[in-house]
C-alpha cells in the first residue's frame, strides 16, 4: 500500500503523461536543469557543453542546427522560453518535467549503487538508460525500498525528497584555507573524473582540507587522509563542501 507522500509524488509526476516527450527532449530538459542547478546561466554554449557530457549511448546530436531545432521545438511546446539576455529558461511545466527526470535519474543511481554495488564511474551512463524506462509507479517502489533517500551517490539532491541545502555549502575554490570540511557533492558526468575522485577518496562524506587556491596557476591543492592532491580550478568549482556531514545516509555506504 502506498503512503500518502508517495501518492502525492505520483500525482505530481502524472503531468508528464500529457506530453509526448522524445528521449532527446528529455535529455535537453535534464541538461538545462543541471546547468541551472549549478547556478549558471543557460546560454546556448553552456547548454551545448552540458549536452556533450551526456553519454554517447544516448545518441544526442550537439551540432548548432540540431540544438537550435530542438530548442525551437521545445519553445513551441511551452517547455522553455528565453529572457532578454537570450538565456534559456524552463517554463513551469518544463521545470516540473525536468524535476521528474532528474528524480528518476538520481533514484536509479542510488538503486544501482546501494543494491547492486556498481562502481561510481559507471553510474551516470547506466542511470541515463534507466531514467527513460522507469514508470512512475516503479519509481515510487524504488524510493520506498531505499527508505526515501534525499541525495544520490554523488551527493546531488533528489527533487521532492525534502532535501535542504546546507547553510555552509561552498565549492572548493571558495572554501576557507586550512579548515577541515566534508565533501558534500561531486560531479557525475565525467567518468574519468569520477574514477580519479573515487581513487583519491574525494567522495561525499570524506573529510578534506583546502591547502591552496592558486588561481594564477589554475589549480587548487587539497589534503585528504594525509595525502596532497592537486585539482584543476574548473574541477574545484564543481565539488561542494560543507562544515559537517549532514548526508550520513549515503556517506555510510560509499565512504572508504
List the helices and strands and how they pair.
Elements: H1 4-13, H2 23-37, H3 44-51, H4 64-76, E1 80-82, E2 88-90, H5 92-114, H6 120-131, H7 136-145, E3 170-171, E4 180-185, H8 191-199, E5 207-214, E6 219-224, E7 227-232, H9 233-236, E8 240-242, H10 248-254
Antiparallel strand pairs: 1-2, 3-8, 4-5, 4-8, 5-6, 6-7
Q: Radius of gyration from the CA trace?
A: 19 Å
Report the CATH C-level class of the largest domain: Mainly Alpha
Question: Helical segment tally?
Answer: 10
What does the oligomeric state look like here? single chain
β-strand amount: 5-15%
How is the CATH topology of the largest domain named? Arc Repressor Mutant, subunit A
Helix-and-strand structural type: alpha+beta
What is the overall silhouette? globular
Task: Trace the largest sheet across and list its strands.
Answer: 3-8-4-5-6-7
CATH architecture of the largest domain: Orthogonal Bundle
Mean pLDDT: 85
Runs in which pLDDT lies below 50 for 5 or more consecutive residues are 1-16, 248-256
Total domain modules = 2
Gap from first CA to last CA: 36 Å
- Secondary-structure element order, as H and E? HHHHEEHHHEEHEEEHEH
